[in-house]
Amino acid sequence: MTIAVCPGSFDPVTNGHIDVITRCCRLFDEVHVVVAVNAMKKPLFSETERVDIIKHALADSGMTNYVVAWTDGLITDYCRKVDSPVIVKGLRQNGDYEAELGMALVNRHLADVETMFLPANPVLEHISSSVVKDVARHGGDITGMVPDYVVPLLEKALR
């Protein structure tokens, strides 16, 4: 059984994230969607809230071969714990590749874990959690950028 780890901050999870996760579920036996806690960032949602939001967003995906968890440690340590040889990252644009490549090389050095890059769906590649929060913060319509379940949660969190 091949287990893949799909990490991210997911603050909040976007439709782009959901697309990458569901595509991973078609490629691997089991996918661990891991909320990575970054002490340098101040998230809008707690790690447990993000886990719950992701679970709710994936509930209607038709996929069942996923686990949603969080970690405040190294993703490579999480990979070792669940015996995963691969990390999957979605790439939106050229800048994503440059940023993710260095991390992929470090992860291979730390734990002999490979990183697989999935290109974003072109319809969703402009969407990021940061953009979504900025649009919502200024009263813009985020419908279609995030799962419907996220819209009221984000509006409430930004009040």
Please provide a written account of the structure.
The chain is α/β, with parallel strands linked by helices and 159 residues long. It has 6 helices and 5 strands; from the N terminus they run E-H-E-H-E-H-E-H-E-H-H. It has helices at 15-27, 47-58, 75-82, 94-111, 129-137, 150-158, and strands spanning 3-8, 30-36, 66-71, 86-91, 114-119. A 5-stranded parallel sheet has the order 3-2-1-4-5, sandwiched between helices. Helix 1 (15-27) links the parallel strand 1 and strand 2. The N and C termini lie far apart (44 Å). 33% of the residues are buried. The mean pLDDT is 95.
In short:
This protein has 159 residues and is α/β, with parallel strands linked by helices. It has helices at residues 15-27, 47-58, 75-82, 94-111, 129-137, 150-158, and strands at 3-8, 30-36, 66-71, 86-91, 114-119.
